[in-house]
Amino acid sequence: MSLGDYLRRFLRFAFHWAKPSWESDTTANETVLRTQHDEISKTIWRLASLLAASSVFCIIILSAPDVSLVSTDAKITIPIASIEVSYADFLFFAPVFLIALTLYLHVFIEHRLRLGTRLSADGEPLSPFLFNLGRPSAELLSAFLFYGMSPCVLAYFVWKTIPRQNAPWLLLFAFVALSGLMLALRIRRFEAESLRRKRMLPRRFSLATL
Questions:
Q1: pLDDT in single tens digits along all 210 residues of the chain
Q2: How many CB atoms lie under 10 A from the CB of residue 146?
Q3: Staple 102 to which of 62, 118, 121, 150, CB 3.0 to 4.6 Å?
Q4: d(Cα 52, Cα 130) in Å, to the nearest integer?
Q5: Threshold 0.85, pTM exceeds
Q6: How far is CA 51 from the centre of its chain?
Q7: Orientation angle between helical segments 87-119 and 149-161, nearest 10 degrees
């Protein structure tokens, strides 16, 4: 198989991945779908809250003066548990945890979108979480929470590791890879989010005229 064939296959795969079908199972009961959507929304909210808390925790730890973190045997103290850990270990395990938690969160976001594109068409309000409100401010905050927060924290990790002797190439690669993935997922889900917002417009209009 030639290089051109591999390239065409890759482009075909990329196109289908970026333009998926967001229609959910039309044979499923509406009550079952709504129950699934509510449970998934609760899980997403818990995971997003954990991700936000972990990000704030990492930023607090990284806010220590650079002069105390440059040496290879530098240690940091976990504020809540008062435990000392190696700064090098923290620079490795904390980004791994954030990336893993982000990817796990997006598994549920994907499934929620497949359910939400149908449920938002019936006129009934979805579970009252930030990402289900459909308001511009809520959409903006949700987009940052889901797609922007983890890359920003990883960028802070890279910036804080620059003064160290070992160049942060691994962290830099993780930041670039995660940022690219978040951008690709945002593009992939743009159609589903637009469809969900359009289907919610009649309900918003009816509420505004009351």
A1: 666 666 666 556 555 555 655 565 555 667 777 888 889 999 999 999 999 999 999 998 888 766 556 666 677 776 666 677 787 788 888 999 999 999 999 999 988 887 766 665 555 556 778 877 777 888 889 999 999 999 999 999 998 887 766 667 888 999 999 999 999 888 887 776 666 655 555 444 443 444
A2: 21
A3: 150
A4: 14
A5: no
A6: 9
A7: 170
